[in-house]
Every structure is written in C-alpha cells, then in structure tokens.
Amino acid sequence: MNPLAVDLNKIIEATSPATYALLSAKGKRLFFPTKGIVGQSAMAKAKADVRYNATVGIGVKDGAAIGFPSLRKYFDASLSNDEVFNYSNSFGNAALRKAWKERLRELNPLLKDKLFSLPLVSSGLTHALYMTAELFFDAGDSIVLPDQIWGNYRLMFNTLGAAKINSYPFFDGSQFNLTGFKSALQKESEKQQTVRTILNFPNNPTGYSPTEAEATAIIEILVNIANQGTRVLVLLDEAYFGLFLESNVYSHSLFSQLADAHENIVAVKICGATKEFFAWGFRVGFLTFATKPGTDAFYNALEHKAAGNLRGSISNCSTSAQNILLRALSTKEYQADFALNYKLFQSRFEEVKRVLAEYDYSDMFTPYPFNSGYFMLVKLASHLNAETIRTYLLDHYKIGVISTSPSDLRIAFSSLEQEHIEHVFTSLYQACKTHS
Amino acid sequence: MNPLAVDLNKIIEATSPATYALLSAKGKRLFFPTKGIVGQSAMAKAKADVRYNATVGIGVKDGAAIGFPSLRKYFDASLSNDEVFNYSNSFGNAALRKAWKERLRELNPLLKDKLFSLPLVSSGLTHALYMTAELFFDAGDSIVLPDQIWGNYRLMFNTLGAAKINSYPFFDGSQFNLTGFKSALQKESEKQQTVRTILNFPNNPTGYSPTEAEATAIIEILVNIANQGTRVLVLLDEAYFGLFLESNVYSHSLFSQLADAHENIVAVKICGATKEFFAWGFRVGFLTFATKPGTDAFYNALEHKAAGNLRGSISNCSTSAQNILLRALSTKEYQADFALNYKLFQSRFEEVKRVLAEYDYSDMFTPYPFNSGYFMLVKLASHLNAETIRTYLLDHYKIGVISTSPSDLRIAFSSLEQEHIEHVFTSLYQACKTHS
After folding, report:
1. Which residue of B has its CA nearest to A393?
2. Does B412 touch chain A (CB under 8 A)?
3. How confident is the model at residue B38 (pLDDT cuts 50, 70, 90)?
4. Do the beta carbons of residue B75 and residue B348 sit within 8 Å?
5. Which residues pair with A366 in a beta bridge?
6. Residue B342 contacts A, CB cutoff 8 Å
7. What pLDDT is attached to residue A188?
8. Residue A243: pLDDT above 90?
C-alpha cells in the first residue's frame, strides 16, 4: 500500500473507527498523489514566476491559457481564458467549494457551528454517488434501499459495484415507511456490524419528502441502530434539495442532524447544481462528509481519498461550469432565478393536484404521495401493465411518461407546461380505459 | 446477470472471442439500461409531442430547457438553452460522435474503408482510459508499460484497478526500445493467454513518438504475439495526437493499422479535445474500439457496455462542451486555430533544440529523445536528485518543473514563451552546478 494511503488510514482510524470500518479495500488503498504532477504543479502555481512555470501540460501565451477563437467565441468576454480552458483542481475549484459550504450552512442553520468536510466537486451527482460507492462498498456488501428508487442505483451499486440491494417498501399508506426502514436496517445490523443505506429526499421517482415528524423519526431509527454498535453509512442523495412544494415538508437536509448524531454514523451528502440550479448539462455535483468525531485533519484525509479516486478516473471537472457557477453563487443572482422557477414548478404541482382532485381516476390509477421535487408517480390498477400503457400513450397520444415498474408510471411535471397537465392525465386515464 | 448483458456477451463472444476473453468480470456484467429511464426518454424524444414529454427530469418552458439568466449570460446567444443546459446522451452527442469518427478517418487515411466503433464521448481522456480499465481489467491482471509513463496510470491501474504493472525501459539509446517492449510482452504471453498494454505516443513525459520504421516494428511485434494465440489488448493513449514536431515521426495513429491487424488484437483508441483542441478544461475525450473480426453489431455491443459504465458512474458528459466542440468541428474553423498554435509549439520546440545544441549541459543533464507533444524530459547526472533540483529551482529561480523520478525532470515547453526557454535551461544548469 502506498505510504500516503497508510498515513490517511491512520488519521481516519484514529479519529473515527466507524469510518475506517466502513471503507472498502479500494477506499483503504486510495490516496491523493500530492507528490506527483498535480501536487508539484500546485506548488509551482503558488511559487513560480508565471513566465517560468513549465509544470502543467497546457499551452500558455501571455501568462494565460491559450484558447482557440473557434471555441472561445461561445463564452462571454467577461470570462478569462483560464476560467474556460485551463484545468481545474482535482478537488474542485477552491473558491467554489467554500461558496458551496457556506450555502449549505445558509440553507441548514443547524450546520452553523458543526464541523464537516469541504465539499468536493464531482462531475454531476451520479459521480458523487459513484465515488461514495468506490470508497465504501466492496463486492458483496449490502445496501438498504426502498422499493422506489432511481433506476441508476441498480446499475451503480449492483452491476458496477457488485453490491446486494436489500429493499423495503417506501410507503406505509400515505407516509414514509418508518417501520419498514427500521426493520430492514435492523436485519442488516444483526447479520454484520455495518449498515449502508441511501436516503433520497425529495425522492425520485415519487417526489416524496418526509414531514418534520418523519424526519425526526428517521434520525431516531439511525441513532438506535448506531447505539447497538453497528457502523452506519448514510448516503443522502439530495439532488432535488430546495424544491419542497408543501408546507409540512421537512425543508432542511437530514445531513444537518446526522453530521454529529453519533460516532457510529457516517453521513455523506450528495447534492449539486444539476437540479438545484437547473444546470443539468453542467455536470457539477458536490460530495460532503460528516461524522460526530470528525476533525479538520480527518475530513482532509477523506477528501484526499475521494480526490484520489476522482484523479484516477476523470482527473478533474469542467472548468467553465465551475467558474460560471461560482460567479452566480458569488453575486447571489441565482436566487431570483431559482425563486422564479420554484414558483413555476409550484404552479405545475398545484395544477396536478387540482386535476387529481377534480377527476376520479381511481378505477385506473392512484397517485402515490408527492410533495416535492420534479416528479409524481401513479400506481396503475392491478389489471393494467405500466409498460403497455407507456408505449400506448406514446404511440397514440404522443405523450411521454416513464414506467418504473410493472405497475408504476412516473410523470415529470417539471417538463409539462401548466396548460397541458390536464390533457396528460385525461389521456392517461383514457389509455387505461382502452386496456380495461 | 442482467439479460441485456447476456445478449451483449453473446454477440461479443461470437464475433470476437479475443475481446470476450479480455473482458473483466465487471465488463461481462455491464449493459446499457435501454429499457430504463434513459432508453424510455430517448423513445419519447423521438415520438412524443414536445408539449407532452414528461419523461426527463429537467425543467421545460416553451419547448426548451429552462436556463437561469445568471448562468445563461456567460454563453453566447447563438447557443440554444438545450445546447447549454439540457442533459446529453450517455453515449455522447450523436452528431459529435459522427464528426469525430470522420475526423479520425481524415487524419488517418488507412482507416478509410475499415470498420471501427462510433467513438463514445468520455469526460476527458483519463475517463476514457479508466472506462477501458473497468471493461478489461480484473484485480490482479497485469499491464505492460514502459518506465516512462504518465504518473496517473499508476493511480488508475494499480491503486484503483488493483492491476500489476510490468515495466520495460522506454528507450534503447536514442530509439524506442523495441526489444524491451517485445520481451515484456513475450514474458506475459508465456504466463497467460492474455496481454494488456498501453502505447502512449506522443509519450508523456518524454515527448517521444516512434519513427515510421519503429511504428512498423511495433505492429509486427504485436502481430507476432497475437500469432501465438495470445489475446492482446492495446490501449492507444493518443492525447497529444497531431503535435508531431519532427518530419521523421510516424504521423498517423497506430490504431489505423491495429484496427484490422489480427483477430487476437483488440485496439482501443483514446483521444480527444483536451490536448488536440487546447480545451483542457472542457473534459471531452473519445473512446473507440477496433478488432479485425469486428462488425457493426459487435461495436454496438461494446459501446453499450462502455456507455453502461459511463451511465452508472457519471451519467453523461458536459453538454455545452460537446456542442461547442461540435460547432468548431462542423465549420472547420478550429483548423486555422490549431495550425497557428502548432506553429507556436514548433517555435518553442526549435528553441529548446537550439539551446541544447548551443550549450553543453552534459555534465549536469542530458535530454531524452523528443520530437512531439507538449514536453521534453532531461536525465540528471547520477550525483543529482531530481526532487532536490526541482524544489531548489522553484525556491531560488521561481522556475517550475516536474520531477517524474529520482533522476528525471519534465519540462513542458508548451507553457514557456520562446524568449524564456534559454533562461529556464541556463538556470537548471546553474541549479545542478550548485548541487555538484
């Protein structure tokens, strides 16, 4: 094992035995090559005369990165060539990482005085999830997931990571299934001394987020498992954070409570610009760690492991995307943009609710509870098949929806103008009727 | 195993047993979830009325992706919101993939009538290399590499991939070490029925590319190994392709000969915009496969496996970067930009040669052969330590260079204006003198 990895492991094990116990074999091997090209280049960037810096493999002219005019012309003149063309740090743009951390504190007042890592920039949220899988999952490890999940989890954890998925039913009537969640964790806990789970709120595909009371109960369940001596890894996939569309929804990140909930709980927050800034094609996500005994040195060690993984798999993330996001964050201009589109989503959400209240579709489909995010999900009556209805809707009504299981159809109201929502639901009902 | 993976494996095994034999366990498990969200969304994109497409998790208004003005203003008005903000296909932008394939044929006339895969878009070249590692390397597999390599190979293949690195000396005097390459492959071939290697030309860190004669000999060596029944995976890391600075250098891709060289040879070309378009921060690379018995269905199957890996680890690549690159490719405007900067690099290269010819540094350091790319490498006299000289140069001369081994220093002449090159070498010599 590389001596740098050994050093990082020592810090991690001494500070948080739970984190160390949860690391995969690869996670233990990982380190950031601080003495390699990237580390040496960083030293040169700080110390060398810009005219004499022959470390990095880019083309430099007049002290800045060269930019082809044929590419450069698509970016605003206020961005420098370095902000568009140069490489970014493997950990992410330092100012952006700080700005995102401040934003996490602003949105989650409970984090105000808590210690947690400096967010690492990932190439989108999938990548942040995947890096977590690389750090914390060996082949054969289990992950506790609800039955309502983003399909890509299967590809990521099962196909790529060779982990086993243990499912529990997401809903218990109209509520988050606390009992199911608890017993799935409990079963895992009894089999082994580690438990790994993802909490994805607002949930994809249902668009459900917990209420205040459910959020409190979720934390309690996790703390109880941790009290048994079990090490608990909690991935918080908060891609749709902020899009809370009902007033009774818990509107903060569970990370803010889990960050210092228990020495056996390791929380990993996955969030980013993709959905929160409507910047889907930017590919900018963030990966943030917290555990009760965490110290600056400990977080630094974990960040080095994650950045080592990033360096060895994609090197670094889009420079222009990071700089443009940083500018929008710095000026706070994005807040008005978000507010406007939040309002837009809310009007679509309200329209979906109005249509569902006005018409009785219950002989053909029933909506699952939804209160946040981009989506809602309907459960078809038992005589109907979701894939059949999906393709029929597409062929006969030119309506696109997603079948997420043999019984469920996901509708992204984020993509539907308010005036077309009723038509989509009416047509869905007609399509179901045709197959009845 | 997922039935989709089974189907892909059947096609691959039936068409090219060598490729199938080289696949890792993960490579065998991989598939692209054509029936999942991404596949269903693609169907809807083709068939649905844009007003009724509720498949994809983005925000849509007036038939296009919503874009925050606070982000949008950094992009030229000629780009649509969809070209900046929308998600890209996991395989990459279809038009860009075709354009890159055409470009490969233009630059390599030997490829004209040969079959090879449609290049898959990766998030930079590291990512294309890493995806290849995921597809074709199990823990414990060996990779044959020269002693002069980009340090990130170690992190990627050894730390992340748990593969063993078998080294051979890159140079034999002033030439590529054909004998060393051959005997390293031969040893592997005798141990097992598979051999995996990377050919990185122009080489990082030396800036060396083979001559015509060496290129021919390299192909011969690989074909001879393949003739023994050994399955040979050849990764062609051609990040610096096109920057050939001496006239006797083989100026085409070895891929064009390896593509149909032998049924036991599987060639993987890794190239992209990063160095070729001076677009380091864009994160756009390409991954292209070829083997003699390859068919369209076979390449399609391999592309699906690679795209499945991409989908499960980063989902997709930067949309604006792909679209901007596509525009530059379509108008061919980039060619004048490249020509201008090629000339610039050549003038710096010539200046390095002039300085090395004019002064006798041989008691302190000797340049390794170099004829292409961004770099050159010097070997220090045996009484000197590269790390000591590097830090001394930085502290006392504000000059930044990279120590790649205890004896070698890499100098990126790509980053040095012509007028400063002599100063850098003179100072390096002085620094060495000080330590003698």
Report:
1. B48
2. yes
3. confident
4. no
5. A379
6. no
7. 94
8. yes
Distance CA B340, CA A89 (A): 28
| A4 reaches B (C-beta below 8 A) | no
Burial B270-309 (b: 16+ CB within 10 A, else e): bbbbbbbbbbbbbbbbbbbbbbbbbeeebbebbbbbbbbb
- The CATH code belonging to domain A3-32+90-331 is 3.40.640.10
Q: What angle do CA B182, B183, B187 make, to 5 degrees?
A: 120
Question: Residue A192: pLDDT above 90?
Answer: no
- How high does pLDDT run on average in chain A? 97
Long-range contacts of A351-354 (CB under 8 A, 24+ apart): A351/A413, A351/A418, A351/A421, A351/A422, A352/A376, A352/A411, A352/A413, A352/A421, A352/A425
Mind telling me how many Å the CA of B221 is from chain A's nearest CA?
A: 30
Give residue B192's pLDDT band: very low, low, confident or very high (50, 70, 90): confident
- Rounded CA-CA distance A332/B4 in Å is 46
Q: What is the pLDDT of residue A327?
A: 97
Beta strand pairing call for B171-172 and B164-168? unpaired
Q: What is the ipTM of this complex?
A: 0.97
What average pLDDT does range B195-201 have in this prediction? 98
Q: Which token pair is B44?
A: 């809807």
How far apart CA B409 and CA B370 sit, in angstroms, is 13
Q: Where are the beta strands (DSSP E) in B273-367?
A: 285-291, 365-367
CB contact under 8 A, B280 and A311: no
Q: Is A284 in a helix, a strand, or coil?
A: coil
The rounded radius of gyration (Å) of the Cα atoms in chain A is 23
Q: Per residue in B203-217, pLDDT tens? A: 999 999 999 999 999
pLDDT for residue B226: 98
What are the percentages of helix, strand and coil residues in chain B, rounded to 5? Answer: 50, 15, 35
Q: Under the phi-then-psi rule, with left for phi > 0, alpha for psi from -120 to 50, and beta for the rest, what region is B72?
A: alpha
Architecture of domain A335-434: Alpha-Beta Complex (3.90)
Report the distance separating Cα B383 and Cα B406, nearest Å: 11
Report the C-alpha gap between A90 and B170 in whole angstroms: 28
B66 and chain A: CB distance < 8 Å anywhere?
Answer: yes
Give yes or no for a contact between A233 and A197, defined as CB atoms under 8 angstroms apart.
yes
Q: Is A155 helix (H, G, I), strand (E, B) or coil?
A: helix
pLDDT-derived band at B56 (thresholds 50, 70, 90) equals confident
Nearest to A363 by CA among A375, A381, A379, A345: A381
Cα(B252)–Cα(B215) distance, integer angstroms: 9
Q: Which two tokens stand for residue B224?
A: 């001879």
pLDDT in tens, A97-108: 999 999 999 999
Q: What residue spans define the domains of chain A?
A: 3-32+90-331, 33-75, 335-434
Q: Which residue type does A139 have?
A: A
